[in-house]
Amino acid sequence: MRAGAREGWRRARLETVLDLSLALAGPRQEGEVVEELVQRAVGLLDARAGIAVSLLPSLVPATVVAVGWPAESGAAARLVASAALQQVRAGEVARVAGSVLGVPFAEVLAAPCLWREELMGVVAVADKEAREGVARFDDEDVTFLRSLALLAAPAIASSRLLEEAERTRLLLEEENRALRLGAGEEAGLVGQAPAFRRVVELARRVASADVTVLVRGESGTGKERLARLVHALSPRHAGPFVPLNCAAVPETLLEAELFGIERGVATGVSARLGKFELAGGGTLFLDEIGDLTPALQAKLLRVVQEREVERVGGRQRITVDVRLVTATNRDLEAMLADGEFREDLYYRLRVVELTLPPLRERREDIPLLAQHFVRLHGRRMGREGLSLARPALELLLRHDFPGNVRELENLLEAAAALASGDRVEAADLRLAMGVGRAGAAASSGTLDEAVRAHVLRAVERSGGNRVAAARALGIDRTTLYRMLLRWNATLDAKRNEPAKSAQAPRSRRRTRP
Q1: Mean pLDDT throughout 17-34?
Q2: Phi, psi dihedrals of residue 111, rounded to the nearest 5°
Q3: Distances in Å between the alpha carbon of 159 and those of 24, 163, 445?
Q4: What is the pLDDT of residues 186-219, one digit of tens each?
C-alpha cells in the first residue's frame, strides 16, 4: 500500500474510532453497546465475521451479538467467546487459529473490554478480507481492535449502572409500599381455615426452592398476595418483585412490556426494559397467564427454557435471572384439551401449583379478615384503634362475596372511611355497600369522592329532606349531618321545604285553564 493511501486509510480508521466514542458517550442499553461494538469492529478491520460478548462478574456471557456467522451458530458464538476469553484474561489481544476454536475461519483476533481492572466483555473478529482470499491481521489491526474494546468497556459498565438504578427504583417503590401498609400485614394472608392454611404452608415450603410456581384461584382470592409471600421468603427477597397483569395490557403492547423494546422500532419509540429485565435478581409475577396468545406463549416458553429474552426490534439475546410466578383463574386443562394453551408451557409453569380457596369455602375466616382490614385501613387513615362493631360483623357474615377477599377488603375500606366514631357500625357498612354498587363502573376518583357523590345524590333525590335521605342511605340522621358538614354541603332542609310548599300552589294556579 502506498504511503498516501495508507495515511488516508489510517485517518478513516481514526474517524471510525472517534465516531464510536461519540456514539457511546450518551446513555445506552447494554445490548446496544455490544451490537455497536461488533458492527464497528467488523467494518473497521475488514473482517468476514465478528462477535462481541458482554460478561457478568462471574464471567458468564450476558449478551452475545454475532455478525457473519451462520444463523444456526449462536452456540458457536458463545463457544468462541468462551475460548477467546481464556486468551484475553491477561489483558492482551489474542490471535487464535479458527481450528483451535472449532469455527470455520482461518484466524480469530480477540480483545478484552477492560474497565478498572474488571473484564466487561470480549470482542473478536475473524478472517481479514483481501483481494486474494484472506490476509493476516497486522499490528495496526491489533491496536485498533484494542482501542474499540477499551472504548466499549466503560459504556457497558455505564449501561449496567443505569439498569441497576432502574431496578433499585422499582425495589424502593415496593419497599415503600410495604412500609406504608405494614410489612407483616401487607401480605393480607389472614385465616385459619384448614384449606387456606395448607396452601399458605405449602407456599412457605417452596419459597426457598428457585422453581416456577403456578397460583390458581378465583378473582379476588389473593393470588398476588401469595406470590408476594413466596418472593418475601425466597433467597431473592432483596431483589424486586415485578407484577404484570397480562389481561390488562393490550395484545399489541404486551410483548414489549414483557421483553422490552429497542429504540427506533417505530417513530418516537425509545428503548425500554421489559419486565423480565426489570425483575433481574428477583421475582416476576404474571397474572392472568391464560390470556396469552399462542404466539406469546411460544415466546414465553423460550424464555423459560433458555433464560434469555430478545427485545422487540432487537437482534441479540439478553440473559435474564428471574424467578417466575404465574397465576390464573381459568381452566388451563380445558384450554389444553381445546388447543388454546401449550402443553409444554403448562408443565414448565406448573412445577409447583398453589390453589387458593374462594371465600365462600372459608367463611369462618371472615371475622379474622374483617378485623384485619379494619385495623389496616384505619391505621392508613390515621385512625389507630378503629374496630368492627358486632352488628357490622353479623351483617358481613350474612353477605355473599362473589368478589372474594378483594370485595371484602374494598367494602371495609369504604366503611372505615365512613365511620364517624372509633368503630365501624352496620350503618357504615350498608352505606359502603350502596357506594360500591353506585360506583362499580367508575374508572377514576377517590373513595371519599365516590362516597360524597353517593350521599349527595340521595339528599337530592329526597328533595333536600335529610331525614328521608338518611333513611334511604340506611344511616342515622346525625351521621348524615356530620358528613354534610365535613363536605361543607350546607343544604338546609327545613328552610327549603316551606319554600317548595309555598311555590307549588302558585305554580298550579298559573297552569289552571
Answers
A1: 79
A2: -125, 145
A3: 10, 6, 39
A4: 456 888 899 999 999 999 899 999 999 999 999 9
pTM: 0.59
316 vs 156: CA distance, rounded Å? 15
Do 239 and 282 touch, CB atoms closer than 8 A? yes
In this structure, whether the domain defined by 187-357 belongs to CATH 3.40.1380.10 is answered with no
Name the H helices within 211-310: 223-232, 251-259, 275-278, 294-306
Domain ranges of the chain: 3-159, 187-357, 360-499
Per the structure block, which three cell numbers stand in for 64? 452475545
| Overall fold of domain 360-499 | Helicase, Ruva Protein; domain 3 (1.10.8)
79: confidence class by pLDDT, cuts 50, 70, 90:
low
Joined together, the cell numbers standing for residue 374 give: 379494619
Contacts of 441 (CB under 8 A, 6+ apart): none
Grouping H, G, I as helix, E, B as strand and the rest as coil, residue 416 is helix
Name the burial class of residue 194, with classes exposed (0-12), middle (13-18) and buried (19+) by CB atoms within 10 angstroms of its CB. exposed
Q: For residue 74, what are the CA distances in angstroms to 132, 313, 324?
A: 29, 18, 25
Structural contact between residues 329 and 291, judged by C-beta atoms closer than 8 angstroms: no
- Domain spanning 3-159, CATH architecture: 2-Layer Sandwich (3.30)
What's the pLDDT tens digit per position in 108-117? 888 888 888 8
Q: What is the pLDDT of residues 413-466, one digit of tens each?
A: 989 988 888 999 998 888 888 755 544 444 444 555 667 777 787 788 788 888
